[in-house]
Amino acid sequence: xxxKLAGFVAAAAMxxxxxxxxxxxxxxxxxxxIAYTAxxxxxxxxxxxxxxxxxxxxxxFASEMVRDHQAVNDKALALVKQxxxxxxxxxxxxxxxxxxADEMKKLAALKGxxxxxxxxxxxxxxxxxxxxxxxxxxxxxxxxxxxxxxxETGLTLFTEHQHHAEHLASELK
Length: 173
Hints:
By secondary structure, this protein is mainly alpha-helical. Helix 1 packs parallel to helix 5 (112-141). It has a single domain, classed as Ferritin, core subunit, four-helix bundle (Ferritin, Up-down Bundle), CATH 1.20.1260.10. It has six helices and no strands. It is elongated and about 45 Å long. It has helices spanning 2-20, 28-52, 56-83, 91-108, 112-141, 145-171. Helix content is 85%, strand content 0%.
């Protein structure tokens, strides 16, 4: 299972590194799209877990992911509308979507505790990757103070998600 997760994490890390290596880093429109894409990915993963899992702890975690990531994405959409910024699709958001689609397909083939363990492990890996990108690339590259603040708030929340996912994964072993 760790091998399967490694593919998604590697793709996500390379995508984020690609943006980080751009001359000036990503612009605010690209950052907004990357952040929104990451949120949508976790909403979709949470909905998949709610549809497949019968484990109370997994379902509670998945509900939290759907609720929190949707709320942050709603705030992000309101902000880009207020700022009159059009989120810009880019190589990072495309790679994140591709990796997530591949991972969701793998998870769809699993059932019961195998699904629960794989979902929790994926959530740990995903949050580590996204939190790392927020810290090292997205927040430092953001020029707009409101966008930067939203990303920082997101990082605080998503760090809590990472810890919760790690706890859940350890409970499911």
